[in-house]
Amino acid sequence: IMRLFTAVVFLSTLGLVEAADLTSEGSRDNGSKKRSKKQNPVVLNASNFETELNKREEKSRPVLVKFDNEKCPKCKKMQKTWKELFQRNSDKVYVVNVDCSSTEGKPLCEDLKLRSYPAVLAFSEFTKYHACEGADSKDLKQ
């Protein structure tokens, strides 16, 4: 159904990456390094997952995808940490979300055989490189 995506060890270098501009459309403001005040991670689902990843990877940036579930206590607890990581790292990496409890997101999460939430996957050059399932806030900050 969907082609696999390539390699980037991102989670281990998260602290070394700086932040950037990413609007929900994935565009930059005239190439400037100033951040928009209304940045939010892009929300993906089964119908737009591959298209959105391809769109971002064409710009030679790795994509960090967070999969969560609205019934997951750890996912709710990590929302603040996730937003901080997005703000701090969006310059070098595109950050996107998939809600696995939604009708749109559930088929994608099943295709990827995710077993626990939150799950974080890093993609680059059309290949999945790194995965972390059931992460805590402290795991993401390392």
UniProtKB/TrEMBL annotation:
<dbReference type="InterPro" id="IPR039798">
    <property type="entry name" value="Sulfhydryl_oxidase"/>
</dbReference>
<dbReference type="GO" id="GO:0016971">
    <property type="term" value="F:flavin-dependent sulfhydryl oxidase activity"/>
</dbReference>
<protein>
    <recommendedName>
        <fullName>Thioredoxin domain-containing protein</fullName>
    </recommendedName>
</protein>
<dbReference type="InterPro" id="IPR036249">
    <property type="entry name" value="Thioredoxin-like_sf"/>
</dbReference>
<feature type="domain" description="Thioredoxin">
    <location>
        <begin position="13"/>
        <end position="142"/>
    </location>
</feature>
<dbReference type="InterPro" id="IPR013766">
    <property type="entry name" value="Thioredoxin_domain"/>
</dbReference>
<dbReference type="GO" id="GO:0005615">
    <property type="term" value="C:extracellular space"/>
</dbReference>
<dbReference type="GO" id="GO:0003756">
    <property type="term" value="F:protein disulfide isomerase activity"/>
</dbReference>
<dbReference type="GO" id="GO:0000139">
    <property type="term" value="C:Golgi membrane"/>
</dbReference>
<feature type="signal peptide">
    <location>
        <begin position="1"/>
        <end position="19"/>
    </location>
</feature>
<keyword id="KW-0732">Signal</keyword>
<dbReference type="Pfam" id="PF00085">
    <property type="entry name" value="Thioredoxin"/>
</dbReference>
<dbReference type="GO" id="GO:0006457">
    <property type="term" value="P:protein folding"/>
</dbReference>
